[in-house]
From TrEMBL:
PANTHER family: ATP-DEPENDENT (S)-NAD(P)H-HYDRATE DEHYDRATASE (PTHR12592:SF0), ATP-DEPENDENT (S)-NAD(P)H-HYDRATE DEHYDRATASE FAMILY MEMBER (PTHR12592). The gene is nnrD. AMP binds at residues 410-414, 439. This is Bifunctional NAD(P)H-hydrate repair enzyme. It comes from Wujia chipingensis. Binds 1 potassium ion per subunit. Residues 220-499 form the YjeF C-terminal domain. Bifunctional enzyme that catalyzes the epimerization of the S- and R-forms of NAD(P)HX and the dehydration of the S-form of NAD(P)HX at the expense of ADP, which is converted to AMP. This allows the repair of both epimers of NAD(P)HX, a damaged form of NAD(P)H that is a result of enzymatic or heat-dependent hydration. Catalyzes the dehydration of the S-form of NAD(P)HX at the expense of ADP, which is converted to AMP. Together with NAD(P)HX epimerase, which catalyzes the epimerization of the S- and R-forms, the enzyme allows the repair of both epimers of NAD(P)HX, a damaged form of NAD(P)H that is a result of enzymatic or heat-dependent hydration. Homotetramer. One of its GO terms (molecular function) is ATP binding.
Length: 502
C-alpha cells in the first residue's frame, strides 16, 4: 500500500518533519537536490550542458542546490533565475548565497543554446494560482526548446492536488517527486505534463507521514500478490464460493457472459447466470461452465421463482449488467435488495433503477457494492458530472457513509470508498478500457473475490486494481484501439500471480 498525497498533505508532512521533529529544512533540500542530480547523472555523462530555471521559492532552492552538485561533478551548468517574485524563501536565499560564492554561472537571457538537460525549478507544491506574465513566458520558451526536460517535484503550472493546468505548465519528460506520489501527477493534465514520474525518498520520517495520514492510497503489484485469496490444496469447488449473476435482458446476453466468465477466471467455485429465457442458448454455448436459471420478463411468477433459486443458492450476487430499466428490472432490483442478505455488486442498469428508487436504501437487506461511472453517480446524487469530477473523493466517501455501502466511482482514476477517512485510488488501467462490457468484467472480478471470502471493501479495491491490470495486459496484446471486453477477461489469468497458487 502506498500513499498518494495532496499538495496540502505534503505541506503538512514537511511542516511536521521540520518544526516538530526538527529536521532542518536545508537537510531535506540537500537530499532532494542529490536525487535530482542522480537522475541526471544516470542519464547524461559529465560535461553535459544543463540549464536550471528557478524562481525564489524552495523549488528554486532545490534547483540551485542540484546545479551545485552537478557542477562539482563536472557538468556544464547554467542557471536562469526568473526573479519575478516579491520575496524569496530562506531556503532559496541560502542556496543562492552559496551559488554566488562558488561562482556558479547565472545567465541573463534564455536562449536555446543546445542544452542537453533543462530542469524546471520554478514552482513546486507552493503553486497557489495561475501562472501569468514573465513566468508564463519563460515556461513557454522552455517548452519550445530541445533537450531532456526534468521537473523538480511537480511540473511548474500543474496543481499538485488536482492535476489542473494553472495558466501555463512545463511539459516534462520526467518528474522527480519527493517523499510521496502527488495526486496531481496522476490526474488530468498533470499526468500528461509530468512525463515519467519517480518518487524518491528524501528522508521524511514515518512519524510525519503517520501524523498526517494522507487520505488516499493505492496498491502496487506486490500488494496484489499478497492480497489475493490463497488457494488450498485440499479444496473443492464449494470452497471458493458461489456467484449468482442476475443480468442481461433480451439481446443483452454479453453483459451476463462477461461478468460470469470474469468471476470464474478470478477463481470462484461456481457461477450461476440468471437471465431471460431468450439468452439461454447463447449462454450455454458460450459458457457451458455456468449454471443457468432463466425467467420471462412478462411473467412475474417465473421471475419470482428464478430469484428464489438464485438467492437461495448464491453466496454473492451481481445485479444489473444489461438488465434494462423497465418494469422487470425494477421488480428484480427491488426483490433482491429487500430479500438477499449477502453482498450484492450493483452495476449499470441496477444503479439506474436504484437511483429512481432511493427509498430502497432504507429497506434493503443486502450489503451493497456500487460501481457507478460518473454519469451513474450523477443520477444517484443529482449532481452534475463536472461537480462530481471536481470532488470525487469527498463525494464517494459521503455517499458510501450515508448509505453504508462501498462505492467504486469509475473514472480514469477510479476511487473506492467505504465511507471511512481513507480511500483507495486506482492507478492501473488504460484508455482502451473505455469499451463496451468493460464494466461488466469488473463486476465479475469483484464478485469472484467476494465469493472467496474477501470483505466488501477489500474485494472492491483489489478487483478494481486487477481489472486495470488485466486491461493493461489486453492493451499490450491487442492495442488500445482494438482491445475489447473479452480480451480483458482473457487477460485475467495472465495477471493472477503464480504465487497465489500454493
Ligand atoms: N516539502 C518539503 O519538505 C520539501 C520541499 N522542497 C521543495 O520545496 C517546494 C515547495 O516550496 P515552496 O513552498 O517554497 O513553494 P514553491 O513551489 O517553490 O513556490 C512558492 C512561491 O511561488 C509563489 N507563487 C505561487 N504560485 C504562483 C504563481 N502562479 N505566480 C507567481 N508566483 C507564485 C508563492 O507566492 P505566494 O503564493 O506565497 O504569494 C511563493 O513565493 C517543493 O515543491 C519542493 O521542490 C524540498 O526543498 C525538500 C523539502
Ligand atoms: K517544478
Amino acid at each position: 500500500m502506498r500513499y498518494i498525497a495532496t499538495g496540502q498533505e505534503v505541506f503538512r508532512i514537511d511542516e511536521f518533519a521540520t518544526n516538530v521533529i526538527g529536521i532542518p529544512q536545508l537537510v531535506l533540500m540537500e537530499r532532494a537536490a542529490l536525487r535530482i542530480a542522480e537522475h541526471v547523472k544516470e542519464r547524461f555523462p559529465a560535461g553535459a550542458h544543463v540549464l536550471i530555471v528557478v524562481e525564489s521559492g524552495n523549488n528554486g532552492g532545490d534547483g540551485i542546490a542540484a546545479g551545485r552538485i552537478l557542477m562539482m561533478e563536472g557538468y556544464d551548468v547554467e542557471i536562469y533565475w526568473v526573479d519575478g517574485l516579491k520575496s524569496a524563501s530562506t531556503g532559496f536565499d541560502a542556496q543562492y548565497a552559496i551559488a554566488k560564492k562558488l561562482n556558479m554561472k547565472f545567465v541573463d537571457e534564455l536562449v536555446n543554446a543546445g542544452y542537453d538537460v533543462i530542469i524546471d525549478g520554478i514552482f513546486g507544491v507552493g503553486l497557489s494560482r495561475a501562472v501569468m506574465g514573465r513566468q508564463a513566458e519563460v515556461i513557454k520558451a522552455l517548452n519550445d526548446m530541445d533537450g531532456y526536460k526534468l521537473a523538480i517535484d511537480v511540473p511548474s503550472g500543474i496543481d499538485a492536488t488536482t492535476g489542473f493546468l494553472l495558466g501555463t505548465a512545463f511539459h516534462a519528460d520526467a518528474t522527480v517527486t519527493f517523499g510521496l506520489m502527488k495526486l496531481g501527477l496522476l490526474m488530468g493534465m498533470g499526468y500528461e505534463y509530468a512525463g515519467e514520474v519517480s518518487v524518491v525518498d528524501i528522508g521524511f520520517p514515518k512519524q510525519a507521514i503517520d501524523f498526517v495520514e494522507p487520505r488516499l492510497y493505492t496498491y502496487d503489484p506486490k500488494d496484489v500478490e499478497e492480497l489475493l485469496p490463497h488457494r488450498k490444496r485440499d479444496s473443492h469447488k464449494g470452497t471458493y464460493g458461489k456467484v449468482g449473476i442476475i443480468a442481461g435482458s433480451k439481446n443483452m446476453a454479453g453483459a451476463a457472459l462477461f461478468s460470469a466468465e470474469a468471476a470464474y477466471r478470478m477463481g470462484c467455485g461456481l457461477v450461476r447466470v440468471c437471465t431471460v429465457e431468450e439468452n439461454r442458448e447463447i449462454i450455454q454455448s458460450r459458457l457451458p461452465e455456468a449454471l443457468l436459471t432463466t425467467y420471462k420478463e412478462d411473467d412475474i411468477d417465473t421471475m419470482r421463482s428464478a430469484m428464489k433459486t438464485v438467492m437461495g443458492w448464491a453466496d454473492v450476487l451481481v445485479l444489473g449488467p444489461g438488465l434494462g430499466t423497465g418494469e422487470a428490472a425494477q421488480y428484480l432490483v427491488d426483490k433482491v435488495l429487500r430479500s438477499f442478505d449477502g453482498t450484492v455488486v450493483l452495476d449499470a442498469d441496477g444503479i439506474n433503477v436504484l437511483s429512481e428508487h432511493m427509498d430502497l436504501f432504507e429497506t434493503m437487506h443486502s450489503k451493497l457494492i456500487l460501481t457507478p461511472h460518473l454519469m451513474e453517480m450523477s443520477r444517484l446524487t443529482n449532481q452534475s458530472v463536472t461537480d462530481i469530477k471536481a470532488n470525487k473523493y469527498d463525494l464517494a466517501r459521503e455517499f458510501a457513509k450515508r448509505h453504508n455501502v462501498v462505492v467504486a466511482l469509475k473514472d480514469a482514476r477510479t476511487v473506492v470508498s467505504d465511507g471511512g477517512l481513507q480511500a483507495y485510488i486506482n492507478i492501473t488501467g488504460t484508455n482502451g478500457m473505455a469499451t463496451g462490457g468493460s464494466g461488466d468484467v469488473l463486476t465479475g472480478i469483484i464478485a469472484g473475490l467476494l465469493a472467496q471470502g474477501m470483505d466488501r471493501f477489500e474485494a472492491t479495491k483489489l478487483g478494481v486494481c486487477m481489472h486495470g491490470m488485466a486491461g493493461q495486459a489486453a492493451a499490450e496484446e491487442k492495442g488500445q484501439y482494438s482491445m475489447i471486453a473479452g480480451d480483458i477477461v482473457r487477460s485475467i489469468e495472465q495477471i493472477i500471480a503464480k504465487e497465489a497458487e500454493e
